[in-house]
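Exam revision sheet. Question 4 asks you to relate a sequence to its structure. Input first:
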Amino acid sequence: MTDTAEIAAASKAWPFQEARSIVDRLKGAAPEKGHVLFETGYGPSGLPHIGTFGEVARTSMVRRAFQELSDVPTRLIAFSDDMDGLRKVPDNIPNQDLLTEHLGKPLTAVPDPFGSHDSFGAHNNARLQAFLDQFGFDYEFLSSTECYRSGRFDDALLAVLREYDKVMEVILPTLGPERRATYSPFLPLCPDSGRVLQVPIVERDLDAGTVVYRDEAGKAVEVPVTGGHCKLQWKADWAMRWVALDVDYEMSGKDLIDSVRLSGRICRILGGRPPEGFTYELFLDENGEKISKSRGNGLTIEEWLRYAAPESLSLYMFQSPRRAKRLFFDVIPRAADDYLSHLDKFHGQDPAERLANPAWHIHGGYAPQEDVPLSFALLMNLAGACHSEDPAVLWGFITRYAPGATPENHPLLDALVGYAINFYRDFVKPNKSYRAPGETERAALADLLAVLEATPPDSPAEEIQNRVYEIGKRHDFANLRDWFKALYEVLLGESQGPRFGSFVALYGVRETADLIRRALAGEDLAADEPVAAPGS
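Answer key, structure tokens:
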């Protein structure tokens, strides 16, 4: 074992903890198939969403951690359950009437309402792959329809037929009386309508590999369970897939805990071994309620990427995956700055610290070296103070603060400028709320104005911060946090911000003094026109 592998073997980072469970599963020998198989599942009845990203990103982190511990090759499959019947027409697609008449058919047999692919399932599969490719994930795509129809699942399907009664013994106790009376793990595809049927199975022929059901007219219909003539109900399907593909690792959300348990029992009945797994918590909206695709009360990945880099989203997925977290717009700035902080620390850390650093897991083992002299929060406050949505204006202040920095030699910083402007335009600007200072605040602001007027323009941010702090202590604030909150509310129309000394150093000592002077004079700072960049 290499030195790095020894360090990884002791790492407390959750991807390494998960990876060690796979190492233990192998017991020192590679699987008979010659590789470890990671799987993520996707239901293509709708478009890819932020949860899809999270599951693939987290699984990729575990896969990369495993590669640090073992030389056994790995594969990651993104599996699409595109043979599932279309249960309802999604609200966010065109030509909805076109799909209504195809309800119940496999998604790959439903016309594409967008008119770009052979089926609705094919369209969503293409979107899934483009979605994953956008982030550079290393994966292989598998279609449920192709696996069923090609015969890849045949042996496992015949095993379900052989163990039919045992599978039923697992599932039936979990169902209500009405559903129990009609349940079968096999869902035949109607030869006439092409729909996926939820009908009782009245006969089974193990030698022929067929099942018999009665159609609406009461006629007995015999169909093979193989070759795509039947698909399986969800929990049996998941178990069958684990056996057929020999999956070693698959994570899932907290809402699927019971499904994992039942599918694991069925997997063992079929002669397989359930994969190692990881249960992650679900996301909550701004009100602390569970996010629902149908309700649309969450945050889309397109929305996140309008305001921050994909690496910040990866960090959000890395952090505390077993804790329920709010997934709303206000978490983005913190995630963006946390990512910058981890990236900044990475190259000064020893090997053990690097393996615990989220940047190692986000970037697959090594983090790029980026010099970002400003925080995302500071850039947003700069945009607010300038009342500007022009990157050139912000860069004028940045260049004065960090001489030599340009969009060309600081591409990450330049991207952050664009993100900060978007966030300012969409969230900060419409919600700015300036207020007049109170009596104690006026006295402290006057004191700060006098100090800034005597402060050299090139004073370091830390020195300015100390002076602001001392002024707060000289006045009668019950809590110094109230002093800094007042600075942002009175001068910037916001209730919070980064270190005020850093803001002053970036925006300018003279410019900040002018803001204070005008606030004390009772001027309407909300009516300000965009400022020009320094030196323009």
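Marking note for examiners. Residues 3-172+233-280 form a domain with the Rossmann fold fold (CATH 3.40.50.620).
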